[in-house]
C-alpha cells in the first residue's frame, strides 16, 4: 500500500505542480501578480498542524488514502523551480507551435515537458 501511495503521490504532485507552473508562466493570465504572490506567501506561512487536522476531519479525508496524497499535491517551491525552467524555453518555440495549430495542452505536453527534464527530476526527488 505504501508503494501505491508513493507512486500516486509523486506522479500527481509532479503533474499538478508542472501544470500550475506552466499556467503561471503566461503573463496575460488574469491576476498574474496575485497568484504569484499567493504561492510565494504559502511557502513562508503555513496554516499549522492543528488547523490542518481540523480541515482534514471536516472534509472527511482523515483516516483515508487521500490524506497522504492531497496535502502534497502542489508544492510552491517546486512550482517556482519548474516555472523558472519553463521560462527558459524560447518564446519562438512556443509561438511556432501555436502557428502550427497547437493548443495550450499540446504545447505543455509536447514542448514544455520535454525540454526541462532536470527540474522534473528535482521536483520528484525532494
TrEMBL record:
Q: Which residues form the signal peptide?
A: none
Q: Which InterPro entries match?
A: MetI-like, MetI-like_sf
The UniProt keywords, alphabetically, are:
Cell membrane, Membrane, Transmembrane, Transmembrane helix, Transport
What is its subcellular localisation? Cell membrane
Q: Which residues cross the membrane?
A: 6-25, 37-59, 65-82
Q: Is-annotated flag, keyword Ion transport?
A: no
Query: Is Cell division among this UniProt entry's keywords?
Result: no
Q: What's the domain of life for this entry?
A: Bacteria
Q: How does it sit in the membrane?
A: Multi-pass membrane protein
Record-given protein name: ABC transmembrane type-1 domain-containing protein
Amino acid at each position: 500500500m505504501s508503494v501505491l501511495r508513493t507512486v500516486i503521490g509523486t506522479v500527481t504532485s509532479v503533474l499538478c505542480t508542472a501544470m500550475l507552473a506552466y499556467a503561471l508562466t503566461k503573463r496575460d493570465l488574469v491576476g498574474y501578480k496575485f497568484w504569484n504572490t499567493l504561492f510565494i506567501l504559502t511557502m513562508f506561512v503555513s496554516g499549522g498542524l492543528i488547523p490542518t487536522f481540523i480541515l482534514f476531519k471536516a472534509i472527511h479525508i482523515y483516516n483515508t488514502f487521500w490524506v497522504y496524497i492531497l496535502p502534497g499535491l502542489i508544492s510552491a517551491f517546486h512550482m517556482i523551480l519548474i516555472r523558472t525552467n519553463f521560462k527558459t524555453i524560447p518564446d519562438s518555440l512556443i509561438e511556432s507551435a501555436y502557428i502550427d495549430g497547437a493548443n495550450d495542452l499540446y504545447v505543455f505536453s509536447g514542448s514544455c515537458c520535454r525540454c526541462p527534464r532536470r527540474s522534473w527530476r528535482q521536483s520528484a526527488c525532494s
